[in-house]
């Protein structure tokens, strides 16, 4: 593995590098940080994020805080810059198109955008780089008054239907861990649950998606009956964080099942504590890796 470039963060104790590792004929990029260990008077390195195959990494793959650094962008541009520019242009265009067609309520065109995109990229990229940021923008525009509540509902309903259509087209082996997805009482947004169900099913997990708000006692009964290996709690609206904390605590009081908590409401710098592990702003493709590392308790 060789160091390609580095950038300095605001703190003198933290340096961030892009490093490359060659496997056969391909280069793979990693974002790593070098942290000063005052006790040992030396620096230690930790991987911030695996970025992927060098020729396929684009600007959006870089964490937000490093995304506009000139040195980082220079490193990316050194790997097939024309291809990178085409991928970034395609991603930007697809986001603009999907936003318009969702807010217009045009499901047929949304399906076309999805199919055209996955011919070049993959399903996880569509969810991570297209659908998720577009739905976030729709929510932000509704919150700021740029979109009416009726338009927001239309867009959400079309997006949920699109995810279900994608779900019907994919299948997994179902021979891996059993994953239960649920939301706290009061959480009405479940598109994140549907996206996660689709992607984990593709990866072969057995998924129980309880993405609609139901009483906590019903969730506990389901856990006792189906005995999932892991429970995922999705929280989209910040106002539902307290309800999510209560749900996680209730599950922990009666079950040893590992609990992961994520969703749009927790994509913040310092998420609150839960009875479980907060995965926050995690890329979709990283979630199966996290799930595989958690030992089964049943």
TrEMBL record:
SUPFAM superfamilies, per database record: Cobalamin (vitamin B12)-binding domain
Record domain B12-binding: where: 176-298
Annotated GO CC locations: cytosol
GO biological process, one term: homocysteine metabolic process
GO MF annotation list: cobalamin binding; metal ion binding; methionine synthase activity
Keyword entries, A-Z: Cobalt, Metal-binding
PROSITE patterns the UniProt entry points to: B12_BINDING (PS51332)
Record-given protein name: Response regulator receiver domain-containing protein
Organism of derivation: uncultured marine thaumarchaeote KM3_25_G08
